[in-house]
Amino acid sequence: MNIIEKNYKTLEKMQFLATLRENNYVRFKRPGLKDLHLNKMRDDGKILHFSISHYALDGGTLKADPDMEVIADWNRGIVKPLTFHDDFNVMYKEIEAENEAASLSDHELVNELSHFLDKWLKKINASNYTIANKR
Q1: Cα–Cα distance between 97 and 90 in angstroms, integer?
Q2: Residue 17 burial (C-beta neighbours within 10 Å; 0-12, 13-18, 19+)
Q3: Integer Cα distance of 135 and 114 in angstroms
Q4: Span 71-87, pLDDT tens digits
Q5: 76, 107, 109, 128 from 84: Cα distances, Å
Q6: How far apart are CA 48 and CA 58, in angstroms?
Q7: 22 burial class (0-12, 13-18, 19+ CB within 10 angstroms)?
Q8: Is 134 exposed, middle or buried (0-12, 13-18, 19+ CB in 10 A)?
């Protein structure tokens, strides 16, 4: 199993994909940790496009810490990162989502962001977040 299949299975096991099938937005809480936000951008029945993010206040400004946009391909059972945004490290990375050939040619960035997502999901899973609200 490769990393994009592994991340799909992890998100499936954590019930994030099923939750986003039924809801447009979900906020998770755990005392002492930043809230975790899942925001569905689009679901056409084949591809689920969503963001997963932590935010923090910095001098009255809300900052991504981090924020990732990903797509889940329901039929292929894969999750591919599209963007990575971290305001504290002043970092933004983007993979061309609309152009499959371009995203495949940027394999190194897909791999880098997929491995980051894998580590982040492990930390999230170990943190025992609970759903605070959904809509």
Answers
A1: 22
A2: buried
A3: 27
A4: 999 999 999 999 988 87
A5: 23, 15, 10, 23
A6: 31
A7: exposed
A8: middle
SS3 41: strand
For residue 117, which of 41, 9, 1 has the smallest C-alpha distance?
9
Q: Is the peptide bond before 81 cis (omega within 30 degrees of 0)?
A: no
The β-bridge partners of 29 are: 130
User: In sequence order, what are the residues at sequence separation of 6 or more whose Cβ sits closer than 8 angstroms to the Cβ of residue 112?
Assistant: none
pLDDT tens digits along 38-75: 999 999 999 999 999 988 777 888 777 889 999 999 99
Indicate the angle between helix axes 3-13 and 107-126, nearest 10 degrees: 30
